[in-house]
């Protein structure tokens, strides 16, 4: 059986041992020392790879890299982009954990099972009230966008045994605000009792609600779909107005990601990276790209 969530593997083990424990497992890959502008270290534990103190600038850089993709993916899956981005910041140490960096792009510390592309890394797990260090296989993605897509799939997936949604309490149609979603994740997605508060602190510190769909009146599927179309149209219009294309080159604009540029230019992300000899998705404003 394939387990999609980080906790199901440990829960199955405890069921087989007849020592069922309602606490799920919180993987600390890259979540060691996440800092918001007005808070101290949100998690006291060390990152699995090395000691690292992420800065506000690094958090802003990751937000700039993933916000557009996160907004599109969240809108199309009835999820909060603000929560998705906050989880990415918290889980990846602002994108600076080895797991979240090129070439693995695993923002959420997702474990690998079966034949999924994977890499083995040392990590800390919170099991039965104690921290344990162990080697685990983690998913390998081709891009941040692919990692975000897989995370959305996890939040929308249903239980293999009961058929009930695993994280229905994180959906916009089932909540009144993002705080309902972060509260629902606490104790389900992660065992840390302060998990939701840490996500809320990041959302507030970096104004991540700006990436959420504004209109949620009635919490209906129809209103979500209408807003999604509006957001996509607006994004396309803005890209058209700010595009600095000249022949076969493109000048990177504020807020651009490689995935966005590839989509707007009608080419694949891999092709765009190959055209410019890029090994990761880092781009800077003003950079000239061959398209």
Automatic annotation (TrEMBL):
GO biological process per UniProt: defense response to bacterium; killing of cells of another organism
Keywords: Antimicrobial, Bacteriolytic enzyme, Glycosidase, Hydrolase
Keyword Ubl conjugation listed: no
CDD domains: LysM
Gene Ontology molecular function terms on file: amidase activity; hydrolase activity, acting on glycosyl bonds
Biased composition (Low complexity): 226-246
Region Disordered, annotated ranges: 218-251
Domain LysM: 248-291
InterPro entries: Glycosyl_Hydrolase_73, LysM, LysM_dom_sf, MGlyc_endo_b_GlcNAc-like_dom
Hydrolase listed as a keyword: yes
Coiled-coil stretches: none
Family per record: Belongs to the glycosyl hydrolase 73 family.
Entry protein name: Peptidoglycan hydrolase
């Amino acid at each position: 059986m394939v387990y999609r969530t980080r906790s199901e593997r440990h829960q199955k083990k405890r069921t087989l041992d007849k020592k069922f424990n309602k606490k799920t497992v919180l993987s600390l890959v890259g979540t060691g020392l996440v800092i918001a502008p007005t808070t101290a270290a949100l998690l006291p534990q060390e990152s699995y790879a090395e000691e690292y103190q992420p800065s506000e600038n690094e958090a802003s850089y990751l937000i700039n890299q993933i916000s557009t993709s996160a907004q599109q993916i969240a809108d199309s899956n009835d999820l909060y982009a603000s929560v998705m981005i906050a989880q990415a910041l918290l889980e990846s140490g602002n994108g600076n954990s080895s797991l979240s960096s090129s070439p693995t792009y695993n923002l959420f510390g997702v474990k690998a099972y079966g034949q999924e592309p994977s890499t083995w890394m040392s990590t800390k797990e919170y099991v039965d009230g104690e921290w344990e260090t162990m080697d685990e296989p983690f998913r390998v993605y081709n891009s941040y966008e692919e990692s975000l897509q897989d995370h959305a799939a996890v939040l929308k997936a249903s239980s293999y045994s009961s058929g009930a949604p695993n994280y229905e309490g994180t959906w916009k149609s089932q909540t009144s605000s993002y705080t309902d979603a972060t509260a629902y994740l606490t104790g389900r997605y992660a065992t840390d009792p302060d998990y939701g508060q840490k996500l809320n602190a990041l959302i507030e510190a970096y104004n991540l609600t700006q990436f959420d769909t504004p209109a949620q009146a009635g919490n209906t599927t129809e209103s979500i779909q209408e807003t999604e179309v509006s957001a996509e149209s607006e994004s396309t219009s803005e890209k058209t107005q700010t595009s600095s294309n000249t022949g076969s080159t493109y000048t990177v604009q504020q807020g651009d990601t490689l995935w966005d540029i590839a989509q707007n230019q009608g080419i694949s992300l891999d092709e765009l990276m190959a055209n410019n000899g890029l090994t990761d998705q880092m781009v800077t404003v003003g950079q000239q790209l061959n398209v």
